[in-house]
Each structure stands twice: as structure tokens, then as C-alpha cells.
Write a structure and sequence with these properties.
The structure is a single chain. The protein is an alpha+beta fold. 37% of the residues lie in helices and 20% in strands. The protein has three domains: 175 residues, 2-Layer Sandwich (Alpha-Beta Plaits), CATH 3.30.70; 53 residues, 5' to 3' exonuclease, C-terminal subdomain (DNA polymerase, domain 1); 147 residues, 2-Layer Sandwich (Dna Ligase, domain 1), CATH 3.30.1490.100. Helix 5 packs antiparallel against helix 7, helix 12 crosses helix 13 and helix 14 packs antiparallel against helix 15. The strands form four sheets. Strands 7-8-3-9-10 form a five-stranded mixed sheet. A hairpin with a 4-residue loop joins strand 12 and strand 13. Its main location: cytoplasm. One of its GO terms (biological process) is SOS response. It is found in: Cytoplasm. InterPro entries: DNA/RNA_pol_sf (IPR043502), DNA_pol_Y-fam_lit_finger_sf (IPR036775), DNA_pol_Y-fam_little_finger (IPR017961), DNA_polymerase-Y (IPR050116), DNApol_IV (IPR022880), Rev_trsase/Diguanyl_cyclase (IPR043128), UmuC (IPR001126).
Length: 442
Amino acid sequence: MFAVMAAPVNNPEHGFCRDCLALQHSQTRRCDRCGSPRLVRHAELYRLRIAHIDCDAFYAAIEKRDNPALKDRPVIVGGGRRGVVSTACYIARIQGVRSAMPMFKALELCPEAVVVPPNMEKYVGVGREVRALMQALTPQVEPLSIDEAFLDLAGTERLHGMPPALVLARFAQTVEKELGITVSAGLSYCKFLAKIASDFRKPRGFSVIGEAEAPSFLAAQPVTMIWGVGKALAATLERDGIRMIAQLQRMERGDLMRRYGVMGDRLYRLSRGEDDRPVDPDGDAKSVSAETTFDTDIAALAELVPVLRGLSEKVSARLKRSGIAGRTVVLKLKTQDFKLRTRNRQLGDPTRLADRIFQTGLDLLRREADGTKFRLLGIGVSDLSDDEKADPPDLVDVQSRKRALAESAMDTLRDKFGRKAVETGYTFGKGRAANPPEPLEE
């Protein structure tokens, strides 16, 4: 059956059934074969090749899979009342719960929710299983996070005996049957619109945006739908009277670039559906970071320092495992009223050393420790590169070489006897404060 599908023999506007994959022969509302209403139809259905796949409420879906008693209950995955929501199932989302929301607020909105502590080791394992199934479709897989990726399915019809649209539908079935979770898929001619399409009709969604309809579709959307338009830029555009993408489509590239610099060129292109970025399976991570939310707000520098040191060591360990280094150190703080502060400093050379990350972060932290109470502290590095040129000898700080050698010796002991086998004076005896639960990683 699938061999026949290699060339789309039916009218693409008749499409196929997502449940039994049968090609349709009319515009009926239900499948000709199985009666399912889950049909996919589109004029460009068999010509589109770029896909975005996103697992539905990933962490919560895994917890429900592993505990059937949670199936029909609202589930929130995250820290305790002082933490934040990592993800929420769709039952909880209906009541207003969202990722990154403070836990106390989420429980005010959904007091009957079951709160489950994150189990990152389990989630990473399932994420790898999903990734393996993606890579069985095509080697052109560009991961964006643990639970989503872009795929370029061009040239895979002969391999699979069916066009990419059907390959995606079969993939979604496979994930659901073999892994017990669901995914949503977006199909288009470019990454920008494939990502937008995957957000429609979640969970278990399958949406298509074609090239012919792209300008008119985008014209009706708010500017915040454009990749890269965050709160700050959206506010700037709002002040300039620009709210809808249709307004950007009527503007000249030069005018947009004079107003918004390099971002102006992106606004011009994406507002018109122009996105030539390839799916890059070797795409590099943009940053590596670690953060933790405190059980009680902390203002004292002496209490923040051991936490900063512990997080710096975690970031350093990840950099070393990955063979990369970062040139910019970024400090992240969240005040007790949930206002976010980020401070960064660019180094002369890339680093992967915990001591250098910590010392730079400490200098930034001292400037912020003015009596303000903080509920969250994070540290990370960006501007990543390979570690070949990381941490050259410092002719000014002659002690840096000794500290680097000491850190190397500590790494060796930790690799052999565990992370707590040896500690610095900053963290020794500080307990959980210096060794918070495994934080989120970018």
C-alpha cells in the first residue's frame, strides 16, 4: 500500500486519514475506510518537506503514562510551592496553568492539581527514544530541546514509500503506540512556518501551512508570532503603532532596518514568509546554564555565594563533558516580586573552568547584593565554541594556572568517587544550599 503512495496518486485536497493512513477519494468529513474525522487535506500536502515535531506536555505526559491513576487528573510537574511550573498537562492548562508560572499561583488556579517533582533522568531517556525515532525518518534532524526538533524530509520518499506528510502521520502513531506519549506536527516549506503550524490544534495536532497561503495567513497574525519578537521588541513596535504582521508587510526593508537594525531585516523577511535557514543537524547549543529557586528568599551575599559556586561547578562539568567553552558569563536573578535581572560580562578568552565562571559571576553578584531579596539564582555561559582555545595561561593572574590545575585534580577525583568526593571552601558544609537539585539546562 505504501509503495503506491510514493507518488501522490490522490487529490491532495482529498488527503489522507491520520488514524489508518488511507488515501481519501472525496471531500467527506470522515475517513472513507475507518470513519475517523482526523483527516489531513491541503493543496500543497505532497510538496512540503520541512517539519517541526513537538511532544505534547512532555514531562506531564510521561508522568501520566507511568502512573495511570493520573490519567484524568490535572498534573503539574515542578518544584514545591516555592518553585515554578516546568510543565502542566492540558487539563491544568485549561484552568490557566502555564510553564514558568510560580507554583503558588498555579495552585491557586488549579488547587486540585497533582504536583509531581521533575525526574530529568527519566525525561531525558524518553527524549532520546523520540529522537531515535526521528532519526529513523531522516538524518536531517535539528533538535531544539529535549522534546522538539525540526526535520527535513526532502528525498526520503523512496526510502519510506510515501510522501513526507504521511511519514509524519505514521511517526506520530509510532510514538503514541511505542512510547505512550503524543506529539504534534507542523508541515511547511520553511522552519519558521513549520514551527508555527505545530502549535495549532495541540495536543495530537497536525497542521499544514503552504507557500501560496503564507503571506495572507501571516498578515492576520500579531507581530509577536514572529520568531525573535519578545516582550521588549513587541513593546517597541507597539509604541510605533505596529501590532499586526500585515503592517510589516507594507513597510520597506530599508525603513525597518533604519528603525530596528538587523532585527528589521528579519521582520521584513519573516513577515513575508521568507526563511531560508536550513535544517542543521549539527546546530550548536547557544548557552549552557544552571539555576535554582530557593525555599525562602535570600538577600545576604554570604548565603548566595555557596549556591553560585555549586551552580558554576555544574555548568563547568557540562561544558567539559561536551568539549565546549563559553566567552560570556551570564548571571540571572529573580527578585521576590518576580522581576528578572540578567547581567553579563564578556571574557577575553572562552572558559570552561568552574573557578573562572564563579569568580566572574561573583563580581556581578556583588553589584546586585544591595539588600534585595532573591527567590532565584542562575549562572551560565554563552558565545559557545569548542574548548581548544579555552583558558590560556594568564600572565597577569599568576595564580590562575594553579587554580586550573587544582580544578583538574578535583575533576579527576569526582569522576572516580562522585561529585561530593571533594569540595571547595565555598561549598563545604553548606549542604543543600550549595548542592541544589539538578537544575534546568539550556
